[in-house]
Design goal:
three-stranded antiparallel beta sheet; 284 residues; 4% strand; mainly alpha; 3 strands
Length: 284
């Protein structure tokens, strides 16, 4: 099991731009709202903490203390408190009165159920994208992502540096489909799914790529990741042809395959459920 990376101030540093205070005085009406600098900083802190959880800095059941996080991020406790409340609302943290916030722990059944929900939502997104059609810009974005994926997977052998690159390709493809679906409810619900440990796109790809890099002689797993990318081609073709039902079914199959692959991994190594892989959450 991978060793959990330590958290340090440099890793979780909030940018100066996010912490900058506007020089213009607020109008009387605006003065009734939270100060702009606090709101901006809270959003930045939320993103940093979310990424820290998804990247494995904080493990399941780990307690997140305001004072410690304030020192790590070099900010006051006010934006820290707002960020913790927001992440708890997203489902990434759990709150217990008089105890504070802990990183959420999942069981296998709950995780699989989330994948079923995600598959249904992604399928609807593909259907709506096929019905509405892709804009010229969306088509270009999708095609470039496909080509980038081909370039990465053509390398022999794969390298650790390819992990982040392919993860970004995968995110780009799915984000393009979701945007083309033009349905806010689907987008919001998928965002909730992706904020659950191990239910995000990038974590599944991360774990598979890491496995492939260390087991290059196993053609079965390499073929699996190739098939996953081939799915992106078939889904694209269905969307371009306006075949809504086919696009939905292909996407559901795509997500089902990811779910079954994860299930196999968990059955082979049950400790991974709430180990480092559980903390390595995003987005397909």
């Amino acid at each position: 099991m991978p060793t959990k990376s330590p958290v340090n101030k440099k890793t979780l540093h909030v940018s100066d731009a996010a912490a900058a205070t506007p020089s213009a005085a607020p109008s009387p009406k605006a003065a009734k709202l939270p100060p702009p600098a606090v709101t901006t900083r809270a959003q930045s802190v939320t993103e940093r903490l979310r990424e820290a959880i998804l990247s494995g800095h904080f493990g399941p059941d780990e307690k997140l203390q305001e004072v410690v996080l304030s020192e790590m991020l070099n900010v006051s406790r006010t934006p820290i408190r707002a960020a913790l409340q927001g992440l708890a609302a997203e489902g990434m943290l759990e709150y217990e009165p008089n105890c504070g916030y802990n990183v959420r722990r999942l069981d296998t059944e709950e995780l699989i159920a989330i994948f079923d929900i995600r598959g249904a939502l992604e399928g609807l997104a593909a259907r709506f994208a096929a019905e509405r059609g892709l804009s010229a810009q969306a088509q270009q974005t999708y095609r470039i992502a496909l080509a980038d994926g081909d370039r990465i997977l053509s390398k022999n052998p794969l390298e650790d540096a390819d992990i982040a690159a392919f993860r970004e390709v995968n995110d780009r493809i799915h984000a393009t489909i979701i945007k083309a679906a033009d349905n806010r409810m689907i987008s919001d619900m998928l965002r909730t799914c992706h904020n659950v440990p191990m239910a995000s796109h990038r974590n599944i790809q991360w774990d598979d790529y890491r496995w492939i890099v260390s087991h290059r002689d196993d053609s079965h797993h390499y073929r699996w990741i190739l098939r996953s990318h081939d799915d992106h081609y078939r889904i694209f073709d269905a969307i371009m042809e306006g075949e809504a039902a086919r696009a939905e079914q292909l996407m559901r199959e795509h997500e089902h395959t990811v779910k079954m692959r994860l299930k196999q991994q968990l059955e082979a190594a049950p400790d991974n459920l709430n180990g480092a892989s559980n903390a390595l959450l995003a987005r397909k």
